[in-house]
Automatic annotation (TrEMBL):
This is DUF2064 domain-containing protein. PANTHER family: GLYCOSYLTRANSFERASE (PTHR36529:SF1), SLL1095 PROTEIN (PTHR36529). SUPFAM superfamilies: Nucleotide-diphospho-sugar transferases.
């Protein structure tokens, strides 16, 4: 290994992501997000590991994430930059920025709009000092908890800009506000899913009033019967 730093991609399969985030017909989106993220990581020229749901160990998210990071450190790396597949605004430059921060002895953290984070660059000795498994994973408290814990270790912390991540259909609508930062193919898939959701919602509203609507997805205006 020529690098002391590895990138950890911690992500589920497209099918699991679509199911857990309740995004109907979202498998294609997450497949494209995975492919796009791998290309961005390759552009950084850093070694990387992908740990999907089939490889994860533990019952809770915190346990699975902890074991994934530990497994990569056990390969002999001193520093890890961990990212997920649900933040399409993430670019190669953010990975390289995290790498540079690590070289300077800093931890780096990118906050998500929902209170989590989308990137974490951390040294092995810092990671080992944190009560990592017991943070409030998948809650709005996560970013503030990790920030406080790192500050209590008196470590320098570099915070990135806030990005939106994909948790459900509503979060896709939020991410559309930053569509110019997202690859065109992913833009199209996000727009398609939102349109499908809006058509389905309109159908449900009409059915509540006893009106049956024939609304094929993405095929023009509805016709009432």
């Amino acid at each position: 290994m020529n690098s002391k730093t590895a990138v950890l991609i911690f992500a589920n399969s497209p099918e699991i992501d679509a199911q857990r985030k309740n995004i109907m017909r979202g498998e294609g989106l997450f497949k494209q997000l995975n492919a796009d993220l791998i290309q961005k990581v390759k552009s950084s020229q850093l070694p990387y590991c992908i740990i999907t749901n089939e490889m994860q160990k533990g019952q809770t998210f915190g346990e699975r994430f902890y074991h994934a990071i530990t497994d990569v450190f056990d390969l002999g790396f001193d520093q890890i930059i961990t990212i997920g597949n649900d933040t399409p605004q993430l670019q190669t430059r953010h990975i390289l920025k995290a790498q540079e921060a690590l070289k300077q002895g800093k931890t780096s953290l990118g906050p998500s709009a929902d209170g989590g984070f989308y990137i974490l660059g951390i040294h092995k000795n810092t990671f080992e000092q944190l009560d990592f498994q017991n943070f409030s994973w998948q809650t709005s408290k996560l970013f503030s908890q990790i920030t406080l814990a790192i500050e209590q270790l008196e470590n320098d912390l570099l915070c990135f800009e806030t990005f939106g991540d994909i948790d459900n259909v509503e979060s896709l609508k939020y991410i559309q506000n930053f569509i110019h930062q997202i690859p065109a193919q992913i833009q199209g898939l996000i727009s398609k899913i939102i349109k499908q959701f809006e058509c389905l919602f309109f159908n449900l509203v009409l059915s509540d009033f006893g009106i049956r609507a024939n609304i094929p997805f993405n095929k023009g205006s509805p016709r009432l019967h």
